[in-house]
Amino acid sequence: MKSYDLELLTEYNIKRTIRVYDYRSSNSDFIIIEANKINPTDYAEYIYNTLNLEKASKVFLDLTDIYGFNKKNLYEWDFIIDNMKFVGERFISIDRINWNSPLYKVVNEFLASYLNQKIKKLNMRNTY
Predict the structure, then answer these.
(1) What is the model's pTM?
(2) Going residue by residue through the chain (128 aa), what tens digit of pLDDT does each one get?
(3) Could you tell me the sign of the dihedral formed by the alpha carbons of 31, 37, 39, 45, in that order?
């Protein structure tokens, strides 16, 4: 896994950063995008192209730093692709995903680890 920042330029020419946790390898194609101070959904096509996503990529969007920590602010971000071009997006709340499906088995492990780390960070912030 590698993590890095991706800068987005708002309509007012203000730079905002999102954090990307990239779990792509030979046996997984999974990314978590952690939003901070900006909801990145307005930049979907830019993100899709910049991260070189593929149709089979599983992308999860974490909006908890903006809207609060609960499952209603965690989504699978599904990019709709037609003829290798971005044409739209849809969002699936994580509480509506069948985590027992073989498709999500590996993803479930990574996402659980990510969320556990996030909870630890939140707990540390609240103790100071």
Answers:
(1) 0.89
(2) 899 999 999 888 999 999 999 998 877 889 999 998 899 999 999 999 999 998 788 999 999 999 988 888 999 999 999 988 899 999 999 989 988 888 888 888 889 899 999 888 877 777 65
(3) negative
